[in-house]
Each structure stands twice: as C-alpha cells, then as structure tokens.
Amino acid sequence: MVRTWQPERDRRVVLVLDSSRVAAARVDDVPRLDSAMEAALLLTALAARAGDRVDVVAGDRRVRTRLRLVGSRDATSRLEDALTGLQPEIAEADWAALAGAVQSLGRQRALVVLLTPLEPSAVEEGLLPVLPVLVAHHRVLLASVRDPELERMAAAREGLDEVYAAAAAEQTLARRRATADLLETLGVDVIDVPAESLPPALADHYLALKARGLL
What we know:
Helix content: 40-55%
CATH topology: Rossmann fold
Order of helices and strands: EHEEHEEHHEHHEHHEH
C-alpha cells in the first residue's frame, strides 16, 4: 500500500496592494508598488496552479481595484490587465476601507497578503487599528520591500557626515525591526526583503504554509 500526500486545494488567497504614498517611494529607482505587483503576479500564478482561489484588492484612500479570480485559467493575465493602470496616489491609505473590501469578499478563512511597505508610522497609524479583525478571521502576512541603502548607510562610517547618516539609518532600521516584532506579536507573518527578493520570498512562504497545512 502506498500513501500519497498532496496539499489541500480550493484554499483562498487575498492579495491587498497598497497604492498609497508609501508605495510611491523608489528603491533602486523602482517604485515599491511595481515590486509589489511583480510579487502579486507570481503568487497568483502559483496559487492558481495549486488550485487555490485568488482575490485581489488594491487601493489607497479608496479601493481602486477589486478582482475575483475564482476558477480562472487565465488568472495571471487577468490580474496583469487589472493592474496596468494602477498608479501610486500621494495620499494615506484608508486601511479601514481596504480591510472592509477584504471582508466583503467572504468570511471563509484565507491567506491575506498585505503588500505594503513596513514603514513604522504608516503601519502604526493606519494598519494596526484594523489588524485585530483581519487576524481573527484570516492568516495575515505583510510583505514589504526593504531599501538596501539603509544597510549600506549604517555600515559607512569613514567621515563625520557618514557617521551621522549611519546613526540615522540605524535608528530607522531599529524602528522597522520593532514594528515587525509588534506585528508578529499580533499574529502577522512579516517578510521584509529587497525588491528583487520579494517575489521568490513570498512564493516560498506560501508554499511552506501549504506544505504545513496552515492555509
């Protein structure tokens, strides 16, 4: 007798793309939103191939895109078309509206992926108040693009100006670590990596959750 194991299918994945002012910041001359969209496309392709259902919400001070890809064989191309005109808005994200859009898609447990920068002030003031509702019903993951320039600045200490810049960079990095620790305490998984690493890191995390039966 041979026992064969395969991951459960028909799970839910909800992608939330933050198109607010923090997503407009450029990392290595590429807007954070572009890197988030690349990660969303890769995860959509993986989830659709694995037989999971994908929903997408994108927005800033209002919801810009709401897309259901249930049973769609062309999920990736549909998502790419839907995101073509999405541009960062120089405004704060209305996380209450975005969380409400997630809840309106259904109450079945899902992996909710928040593609938003791990910027302490934006997270603490806008995202934290809505997290308890999301975490109570879903597995929540925050996926962020980290600027490697911060590490480079923190390591450079050859002159007085560089020492001051390094101190500021260290303070910024410490705040980001503290914010990530707070999110994890609340039950949120956190991925904070450079832009080129975000799509594979998010894909690996999704596959690991599937393998452990945590979706």
